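Reopening this one. Same input as before:
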Amino acid sequence: MTSPVGFTLVQLRYFLVAAEHGSMTEAAAELHIAQSAVTAAVYNLERDLRVQLFIRRRGRGLTLTPAGERLRQQARDLLARAREVEREARGEGEAVSGPVSVGCFVTLAPYYLPPLFSECTERHPGIEIDVVEGETDQLVHALAAGRIDFALTYDLGLGAEPDVHSETIAHAPAYVIIAAGHPLAGRDSVELAELSAEPLVLLDLPHSRDYFRSLVAATGTAPDVRYRTQSYEAVRSLVARGLGYSVLNQRPATSQTYGGGEIAELPLRDGGRPLEVTIASVAGMTQTARARAVMNLLREIAARPAER
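Same output, byte for byte:
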């Protein structure tokens, strides 16, 4: 275990100002403090370092010793680095910069992350975004562990977390997907009850699965879960194959699937409550300026659904 540093950044600052002016009196005037405070700081610095930094001659001011000359450059570098650390921690300065760790719910990532990276690069080039993708529980744990600054997620399960503050930035209504050749594909909308006799392809993620099941159960029927997968795109591909229908919330820009099939999307007349897209953070935590900047970008992106 290393021993603690005996001197302070304040002592170094006072020493540098005194060295630049060659006078305790002039240093005190620039710092707007009593001369005795400057003298005491330099004396304590010499004592802590066990070295003489100035040669004091009456009427001729202060002259740096060889040790003082070496410390002057080192002190400048150290104070400059300290200012960088402070700016990085606060995310402040002329330009918002530094790392921001963002948690993102897995199915939201394709819709929000590309515009977030693009706009952040353009407007805040000094910010470095690091993304942790996961499900709601994983993101809540990452918040509690301090591994992420905040999370972009659905409100699923967040109500049971007293230490998490959530802010709704968008609503995502549920809709049905069926194969493009399905008899109902040409309809403007559909009720889930009309599909109750068909297999359900379930997006099988924690909390999400319960939400989708509850939508079907609200029609008075039990969902016939024939296929399940944790992959959003696998759900679409299975449906395109005619293996059943599914219920989702985020809408891709194309009806084509990875496997080359095609699906039809139908708004739900009995879709229940939409999911809330939220920014979740540790309750009572003060975010850095750079994290707030990224949050603001997400709010703007959420307000422009046609661009996602």
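So the earlier flakiness isn't reproducible anymore. For the record, The radius of gyration is 30 Å.
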